[in-house]
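Sequence in, structure out. Go.
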Amino acid sequence: MRPPAPGARDPAVLALAALAVAGHLATIGRYGYFRDEFYYIACAGHLGAGYVDHPPLIGWITRAVLETIGASLPALRLLPALASGVVVWLAARIAGEMGGGRLARALAALCVLASPTYLFNMHVMTMNAFDILFWTLAAFLVVRAFNGSSVRTWMLFGVVAGLGLLNKHSLLFFGAGIVAGMILSPQRRLFRTRGPWIGAGIAAALFAPHVVWQFAHGWPTLEFVRNATAEKNVALGPARFFAEQILGMNPAAFPIWAAGIVYLLVARAMRPYRAFGWAYLVIFALMMLRSAKPYYLTPVYPPLLAAGAVAVERVGAVAVGAVVGERAGARRLRRALPSVAVTVVAVGAVAVAPLTLPVLSPEGHVRYSRALGIQPRTGERMETGELPQYFADMFGWEELVATVARVYEGLPPEERAHAAILGSNYGEAGAVSFLGDRYGLPDAISGHNSYFLWGPGGWTGEGPLITINFSEEEARETFEEVTLAAVSCCRRCMPYEDRTPILICRGPKRPVTEIWPSVKEFI
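Output:
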């Protein structure tokens, strides 16, 4: 087999990787904390082998960040920003492993840099940033293994896959796709060697403690997935799901990854990597069957973009020649084709960056989106406001916590000592617990996802319960006295977090041990 291609120190690729990191660092504090960041900070305070809606690694990563560099936005988002640069670099390395030259490596790196979905998901501290990293690193190691690397490469793949599974369950889709792709391609021969089996064993061993945790807790993630599929996620047909892939990965890059799929499946030069073409089709079908959100599929694209970049570099010029002939102008066009592709993707990157990276003010984002004819969307069954959900979930938390603090401080001292705060979801509870320190608020409780497993804290029913975003009607089913104490308003937040009622509930009609199961919400 040919030796691994160069490119680890390619100046253009390193510059693009640095640009990715710099873009995130430059905009890291323009908006506020993201809803899920509050939740992962709370998870960092309850370390274990699993959580209701995700594996444990994000809790451990967040805890390490909090214990070392702090909880500021720059501190919390530094690792995702660095991960974005690594993913850009890895995409170029994959292109190099597939035989691509400098232009192919630069084009693959640029396409990854230009993805709207990657721009946002690698801007905040969530599982998604590391999910993209683990998928891409796993793909790189598989390509290296296909090129004839040693068992050690498969062992490294096992470590990466195991850690990826501890970060997000969706890496199971990658594993299923690669296995199916290998069966359907010439690389099925590798199943007769020990490397893939050793890698799978390492991944399974690393993932095993989380499986044990799931069993011990009654498989809560399965319940969460069932509820989210039935009640929260929007089910999309194949055409709409595919269209969302084009938008999420940047329409300017669509010809590249589409060419990559075709090139992987039909080109003789791509026979060693054909498994990735089949893997995409398998993973796409599996996610359609699971009614997955469109962005769940996006970590699969770096190797497809790499293959497409190689196709543009190798085959694109030949195709142009077949169409326009051998005139002098045509020869110049064939030589310039890869550079043209880079230019088109670069222009697309500049155009889409303000849509998913907070380079503009909220008002500027609204104006820019409207100028492009783009309406705010969400992959969930909820109303959106002027901002898309991923930006709207960075607003309103300061106002909410300040309102809750005024209600809490208005309680008589004897009640305040025994009061508790109940959020209707993990964003509200996490915001109160994190931002409420400056007001002296107690940590909030909630029935949402892992908060339910953490229980009612120190609330015994002796003191009042301050509730966030519960209706008076449902509160009166459980409490003798219910008072609307305040309403929290926010301008740019998600509509369901605007005009949020803050209730003071006294006199529980049942013991807390009987009330708590009724607040459970795995969704």
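Check: Residues 320-325 have pLDDT under 50 and may be disordered. Residues 464 and 506 are 5 Å apart (CA to CA).
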